[in-house]
Design goal:
Layout lengths: L7 H13 L11 H4 L6 H18 L4 H13 L5 H18 L5 H12 L7 H7 L5 H13 L1 H4 L6 H14 L3 H10 L8 H20 L12 H10 L6 H23 L14 H25 L7 H6 L3 H19 L16 H6 L3
Helix pairs in contact: 1-8, 3-4, 3-5, 5-6, 6-8, 7-8, 8-11, 10-11, 10-12, 11-13, 12-13, 12-14, 13-15, 14-15, 14-17
């Protein structure tokens, strides 16, 4: 059994903002005469606003080619001197901020994603509002936009705490795995040179991960499978933790490993999901849980440094579910002695045979 990459939809959405700046710039979109002006008149500001409003109208319209052209022009439109850029960003925030809520999902998400490409902190209010939208695609686009602002927010003692607080609260209640992965990524301030930034972001991550563990007893965990990303980001920020927080973090990692193994080997039989015979969402969840198991065991091994660490992932890759469970129960004993954490033994699955087509599928 090989570990599969997960979150294709996440990567596709995340690439919107990352690739938008690479869009070909139109030779002359009608604003070239204004871009180099040191100052702008009220009439010129109105012209910029009208230009943005017209492109937004075309972008959400029914003509695909006109919509695509308008999107490209809006992405490239902000280039210019500070005075022009200020007016352009203000127009985008005002017009898109009033439009996206009343639109259908796809155009609304496209507009919010476009705002996220502007890379301007004046878009924060709009993005934080979109982060609370009832539609998962809009929330995901907002989280991607906030992630794109990380370099602008790092070290900003006024704005950053507000953004991290909003991401923490959004992550605690998020029901979409795609949106939750992007929320986790938006909290990755591991590259910030400010210790306080990293500590604040890591604290928010631990809150989300801990709160979500409390929901694993429900029939279905919302956004199930997204938390491997949360552990990866927390690991990148672990140096900001004090001793007490490190212990808390190790406990969280152990509990996620325990959950993921139970989920994988439990009644839903995720271990038996296969591309040729299972629903795509089931295969995606299996992939995500496999990656969560691998990430959690890697981190727990590094945190506890046992002399003979259990090997859950090794047995998972061998498709030996009984031994995989036995290795998880070894971890339970280790975390009880090392962390004082009581974990119930995972029960061996009642059906451990891997389907014939799965055995064929796993051949290199």
């Amino acid at each position: 059994m090989r570990l599969r990459s997960a979150g294709a939809l996440t990567l596709a959405l995340a690439s919107i903002c990352a690739c938008a700046s690479m869009a070909q710039q139109p030779a002359d979109d009608g604003l070239e005469a204004l871009r180099s002006r040191p100052t702008l008149t009220d009439e010129e500001r109105a012209a910029i606003r009208n230009w943005v409003a017209e492109r937004v109208r075309l972008l959400v319209g029914s003509d695909p080619s006109a919509s695509q052209r308008a999107a490209e022009q809006l992405r490239a439109g902000s280039r210019g001197e500070k005075e022009f850029r200020d007016a352009y960003v203000q127009a985008c925030v005002e017009i898109i901020g009033s439009e996206f809520r009343r639109l259908e999902l796809t155009p609304a998400a496209r507009l919010v994603a476009l705002v996220g490409t502007l890379g301007d902190t004046r878009t924060i209010d709009l993005l934080l509002s979109a982060l609370q939208d009832e539609r998962a695609g809009v929330r995901a686009a907002a989280a991607a936009g906030l992630r794109n602002l990380q370099t602008k927010l790092a070290g900003n003692a006024d704005m950053l705490p507000r953004v991290i607080d909003a991401l923490r609260e959004a992550g605690r209640k998020e029901k979409s795995a795609t949106a939750l992965r992007l929320i986790y990524q938006a909290l990755n301030y591991s590259n910030s040179s400010v210790t306080g930034d990293r500590r604040l972001a890591c604290s928010a991550l631990l809150t989300i991960l801990d709160d979500r563990l409390r929901q694993t007893g429900s029939p279905a965990l919302p956004a199930d499978g997204a938390d491997g990303t949360g552990l990866q980001v927390a690991w990148a920020l672990r140096e900001s933790l004090d001793e007490a927080s490190r212990r808390q973090y190790a406990t969280i990692v152990a509990r996620w490993l325990h959950y993921a193994v139970r989920r994988y080997t439990g009644p839903d039989k995720l271990y038996a999901a296969r591309e040729k015979t299972s629903a795509p969402q089931t295969v995606e969840l299996r992939n995500s849980i496999e990656l969560l198991i691998a990430e959690a065991e890697k981190q727990l091994t590094a945190l506890l440094t046992p002399p003979d660490p259990p090997k859950v992932v090794e047995q998972m890759q061998r498709a030996d579910l009984a031994e995989m469970v036995a290795q998880m129960n070894r971890w339970s004993s280790l975390v009880k002695s090392g962390l004082g954490l009581e974990l119930e033994d995972v029960q061996k699955p009642t059906q451990v045979e891997i389907p014939v087509e799965a055995q064929e599928e796993e051949q290199p």
